Structure formats: C-alpha cells, structure tokens
Amino acid sequence: MVVADLNQPGEEYIAVYGGVGGKGNRFFLANDNRAPTTVTSGELGQERFLHLELKTVGHAGMIGFPNAGKSSLLRAISRAKPAVAPYPFTTLNPHVGIVHYEDYEQIAVVDIPGIIKGAHEDRGLGLAFLRHIERCCFLLFVLDLSVAEPWAHLEALKHELEQYKVGLSKIPHAIVANKFDLLGSKNNLPLLKEQVKQRVIPLSALTGENVEELLVHLRELYDDYLKTEKEQVRKPMKW
C-alpha cells in the first residue's frame, strides 16, 4: 500500500511523531539551586517501518534493450559520462544528463538501464528500474537499427511498459534508430518506417550523425509538455 507519493516540489509527509522531550538541568535552575542535577526523561516517540522507494526525476526517459547505445547517446547530447562498453547491462544505475539550449532552457534526460523481455516479471534488472519511467514526462525509445527486425524490439519494449503499468507506453514519445553508421542499418531504416506509424529519427551516437534532429525534436516534446501543463492549470475547478 502506498501511503505517500511525493512528486511535487515542497511536498511533505509526516511518517511518525517524536515523543515529548524531557526537562534538563537548566529547567530546575533556581536561586537556591544554582547547580541542579535533576532531570526528567522524555516520552518515547512513534515507531513505524516504511519501505522508501526513490524514483529518478527527469523530463525524458531513454528506453531500450541492453547495448542499444543509450549511454553513448546520453554522452552525445549532454555532459553526462555514463560507462560505455560492448557488453549487456553496462548501465546498472539510472544516469541523468542535462541538455542545454541556446535560450538557456534545460531538459533532463534519464538513461534507464537496459530492459529485456520479462522485465515486468523482475527479469534482468527488472522492476528496480522500470519504476523510474513513471516520473518521465515523455520517452525516447532507443533502438539498435543494425539488428534484424528492430521494430520487434520496439513492440517488446512497449509490451514490458504496459505490463508494468497500463498506459505507460502511450505517453508522448519519440523513436530513435541508433547505430545508423553500421552495416545493414540503412537497409533496415525503410523497413522500420513501414512497420511503425510514428516519426523515426535515425542517428549515430558514435559519429554524431543526425543528433541535431533529435535535439530539435526533444525540445518540441518538452515545449508540448509545458503547454499541456499550463492548460491543465488554467482549467476551472469543478464544484
């Protein structure tokens, strides 16, 4: 049972109350007792066992299979330095990178550790990191364009998100086809575009090819999010 979900700045939750404090030596100070040694004990406070769960806060969450190049992409668009290596599960903890724009706007992008089939059943890194996606305003599905049928990876990722929480895969998102510099990727790109309805952004995090298009689209997603938030605030309250 969730007793509190602190997801807004300044929110607080009082889990327990401390006991009433006792009286120290100074309380018993008097003209005829200049060095009191009397004290009273305080009352015991409340005790409670709670499981605290931290969810990383970021505007955009990068979702992908292990070795899709999410960490390399985060390095390419921000100053974050997550580990990069040619083996699965290089990223064991979420990394946050800040994307800076010329108008001084900043967008926080979270590199979520690789998701595999069955992650919603706690396989791989599983539920430990799926929860971080809940806090994201929009998603970046990062696909390895060089593998056979990259669109199957996209469907598998969406399935895992839906099994974890209904509607999670349907929040605003972009499809990033990474590793465009590798052999076979250029042949897979038109096939991927035939299989999905959304816009596909092909790029190479390694060479930097077409990364600028992603940055522009990332800003569009962010601006749309801000616009939606403002519209919700302006809605009249129902009595």
UniProtKB/TrEMBL annotation:
GO biological process entries: mitochondrial large ribosomal subunit assembly; regulation of mitochondrial translation; regulation of respiratory system process
UniProt xrefs under InterPro entries: G_OBG (IPR031167), GTP-bd (IPR006073), GTP-bd_Obg/CgtA (IPR014100), GTP1_OBG_dom (IPR006169), GTP1_OBG_dom_sf (IPR036726), OBG_GTPase (IPR045086), P-loop_NTPase (IPR027417), Small_GTP-bd (IPR005225)
Residue ranges constituting the OBG-type G domain according to the UniProt record? 58-223
Domain Obg stretches: 1-57
Provide the leader sequence positions: none
Alphabetized, the UniProt keywords read: GTP-binding, Nucleotide-binding, Ribosome biogenesis
The record's section on SUPFAM superfamilies has:
Obg GTP-binding protein N-terminal domain, P-loop containing nucleoside triphosphate hydrolases
Reply yes or no: does the keyword GTP-binding apply. Answer: yes
Q: Give Gene Ontology CC terms.
A: mitochondrial inner membrane; mitochondrial ribosome
Show the stretches that span the lipid bilayer.
none
The protein's GO terms of the molecular function aspect are: GTP binding; GTPase activity; magnesium ion binding
Task: Give the family this protein belongs to, as stated in its UniProt record.
Answer: Belongs to the TRAFAC class OBG-HflX-like GTPase superfamily. OBG GTPase family.
* Listed name of the protein: Mitochondrial ribosome associated GTPase 2
The gene that this protein is the product of is MTG2
